Amino acid sequence: MDIIRLGGTERRLYELVAPLVMDAAVIRQNNGYPFKTSDKYVWYVACQGGTARGFMPLKRSACRVLIDNYYAEGDDPEVLALLLAAAVKGRDGGAELAAMVQKRHVDVFRRGGFETVAGLKNYDKMTFAMKERAEGDDTSA
Predict the structure, then answer these.
(1) Are 30 and 22 spatial neighbours (Cβ–Cβ below 8 Å)?
(2) Which residues does 136 contact at the CB level (< 8 Å), separation at least 6?
(3) Which of 23, 57, 92, 135 minimizes the number of CB atoms within 10 Å of its CB?
(4) Pick from 60, 62, 61, 72: which is nearest to 108 by CA?
(5) How many Å apart are CA 121 and CA 124, to the nearest integer?
(6) Digit-coded pLDDT (tens) for 17-73
(7) Is 5 in contact with 92 (CB distance < 8 Å)?
(8) Is the pLDDT of residue 136 over 50?
(9) How far, in whole angstroms, is CA 22 from its chain's centroid?
(10) Where are the alpha helices (DSSP H) in the chain?
């Protein structure tokens, strides 16, 4: 499976993800929320055989990068983990990386280095915490 990085308004992005983001079943899986994009977004798209199997958009603001409204076909944890690893690796160095994570995906994000900062009804608000661990903070072990 290939992970492709695309700008939020690139033509190729629309070609790859339109069949998914316009699918009623995919929108239901996203708790009814539509998928949004602009030039402030970078998308990671998991492709297999030329077909998108998942995506993870990151929205950049002045001080953070937010993962929100992502999708993996069949809730495949492997696809989510690949997308998450690409997003972590490709994010801006000093920017905080935050995510609104559906409850059923919290374990995948934890394994990817995130920790919960707030639990909501359907989501966990999480932040990437591996930086602190990499710098020697071993208190969570």
Answers:
(1) no
(2) none
(3) 135
(4) 72
(5) 8
(6) 998 888 888 888 877 878 889 999 999 999 999 899 999 999 988 888 999 889 999
(7) no
(8) no
(9) 18
(10) 11-21, 24-29, 77-90, 106-111, 130-134
Place of tokens 């920017």: 95
Model pLDDT, residue 112 = 93
Instruction: Look at residues 97, 100, 113 and name the one whose alpha carbon lies nearest to residue 65.
Output: 97
Q: How many CB atoms lie within 10 A of CB 98?
A: 20
Distance CA 3, CA 29 (A): 21
> Who's near 26: CB < 8 A, 6+ residues apart?
20, 71
CA 108-106-98 angle, 5° bins: 95
Calculate the average pLDDT of the chain.
86
